[in-house]
From TrEMBL:
Pfam families: 6PF2K, EMC4, His_Phos_1. Its main location: endoplasmic reticulum. Gene3D superfamilies: P-loop containing nucleotide triphosphate hydrolases, Phosphoglycerate mutase-like. It comes from the Eukaryota. This is ER membrane protein complex subunit 4. SUPFAM superfamilies: Phosphoglycerate mutase-like (SSF53254). Residues 46-56 have a biased composition (Low complexity). One of its GO terms (biological process) is fructose 2,6-bisphosphate metabolic process. Residues 34-60, 449-470 are annotated as: Disordered.
């Protein structure tokens, strides 16, 4: 056995795994090692764990994968056609004389290929159906497992390899076994692999509504949201209730809108248990304050307070230090080199006594790990710099490009990111081009339309003047 410092064991926990390719010496399934239902641990000697050939395992029935069945079907359908050359050679060897042998060869050379062509359609009937794509995907995955079985053997379960450092993953982190993982890097690898899973999960990124500092262009601070910000908060609450949690809209006794849970069997589907994160800043808490968070009863029977707000200081806005609360003009006057240095290296520039984008990435890491472990939809209401880093991470954009994503994270816009095992193939790596798994919900026009209605139908330019934008 090849000595290696670190190993990741690709354990095959599926009950329908193919066994058409013989297992190499030393390979054993979870059931044989005692990790499956009713399995007994494999009894091997210490020498076997060091590379000796293990004894014969219990014989199992061989079952072809769909891909192998298709291959065999093609071989069967074309088998008779492949024998035409052999038939012609035998007819040439039999000569021109009329003999029983030449008659049989001639008959077989014509009848058998014709029969194969006419009946080949029946050979493929069992491979049809609506679930053909699912079968093909499952077959492709099993083929990958078979390739691994040809090159690797499972970690021995008899203690002969306990001196090695390894990670054993079962069903993408459903069960994780680690051994001798003491150094910093191995522990970080364990942390990452434990949180990773291929289950589809959706993350919604939303910047807070317009704040008072936004109207004057001041950096940072902890100002409340404006009237326009509260309008977006109302729209966000309805979006979260209908689109994320799938709640039913009902009218209360006072005519105000209310929300209630959709039960199993509802024509529009059952309500969804979801999560909500905000920063500790007042403007994000106010933006998410109107989102309903009823207590749902999932199929497992455990109560779940959907969209219960959780406050994370790790997703607070970048701290501008001595520049907090200043306008760009005031920053240029008090810190003349700040604007120039930040343009030269925006990701590495640290505000005087403040933070840089590298600092944001460092404090975001625990949240990223927790976010990746969720199966439920997650709505994050945070700030522009923070959301740029998260958006770049989820869409496969280099972190050096994250500070330059000027058009991606806008106010009054919700970015829906649907992640699953196929997301990686849609990554563009271009910060200006969104991947296919990103959906943009733009509420900017709705916010402005609502503002005009509440102010008596004034023009948009007048609304902007009132808000102090122009």
């Amino acid at each position: 056995m090849v000595d290696a410092r670190f190993r990741v064991d690709f354990a095959d926990g599926g009950k329908g795994a193919s066994t058409s390719v013989a297992d190499p010496p030393g390979f054993a399934t979870l059931k044989e090692l005692g990790d499956g239902e009713g399995g007994e641990p494999a009894r091997t000697s210490a020498a076997a764990g060091k590379g000796a050939v293990a004894g014969p395992a219990k014989k199992r029935g061989h079952q072809l994968t769909p891909a192998m069945r298709v291959q065999k079907a093609y071989a069967f359908a074309g088998g008779q056609l492949q024998s035409i050359l052999m038939m012609g050679f035998m007819m040439w060897m039999s000569g021109n004389g009329v003999q029983i042998f030449s008659i049989m060869i001639t008959f077989g050379g014509i009848f058998n290929p014709a029969k194969a062509i006419l009946t080949s359609g029946k050979t493929f009937e069992r491979f049809g159906g609506a679930d053909g794509a699912v079968e093909a995907a499952a077959a492709a995955w099993r083929e990958k497992v078979l390739e691994f079985k040809k090159l690797y053997v499972t970690l021995q379960n008899d203690g002969s390899e306990d001196d090695l450092s390894y990670i054993k993953l079962i069903n993408y982190g459903e069960k994780v076994l680690t051994n001798n993982m003491r150094a910093y890097l191995p522990q970080r690898i364990v942390q990452f692999l434990t949180a990773t899973h291929p289950t589809k999960h959706t993350i919604y990124l939303c910047r807070h509504g317009e704040s008072e500092y936004n109207t004057t262009g001041r950096l940072g601070g902890n100002s409340p949201i404006t009237e326009r910000g509260w309008v977006f908060a109302e729209i966000l609450a309805k979006f979260a209730a209908r689109h994320i949690s799938n709640l039913r809209d009902v009218d209360g006794l006072d005519g105000a809108a209310g929300w209630e849970e959709r039960a199993e069997g509802d024509p529009d589907g059952a309500s969804i248990a979801a999560r909500l994160w905000t920063s500790s800043m007042l403007r994000t808490i106010q933006t998410a304050s109107l989102i309903p968070h009823p207590t749902l009863t999932p199929p497992n029977g455990a109560p779940w307070e959907s969209m219960a707000p959780r406050i994370y200081r790790n997703i607070d806005e970048i701290f501008a230090g001595d520049c907090e609360g200043l306008t760009p003009e005031e920053v240029a006057a008090t810190h003349p080199q700040a604007s120039y240095l930040r343009k030269m290296d925006k990701i590495g520039y640290r505000y005087p006594r403040g933070e840089s984008y590298f600092d944001l990435i460092s404090r975001l890491e625990p949240c990223i790990q927790e976010m990746e472990s969720y199966n439920e939809p997650l709505l994050i209401v945070s700030h522009q710099a923070i959301l740029r880093c998260i958006f770049a991470y989820l869409t496969g954009v280099d972190r050096e490009k994250a500070p330059g994503m000027e058009t991606q994270i806008q106010q009054n816009v919700v970015y829906q990111i649907d992640l699953d095992a196929s997301s990686e193939q849609h990554v563009t790596g271009d910060e200006k081009r969104l991947p296919a798994f990103v959906t943009v919900h733009d509420f900017r026009d709705e916010v402005e339309r609502t503002m005009r209605e509440r102010r008596g139908g004034g023009s948009r330019e007048e609304d902007d003047k009132v808000a102090g934008v122009l």
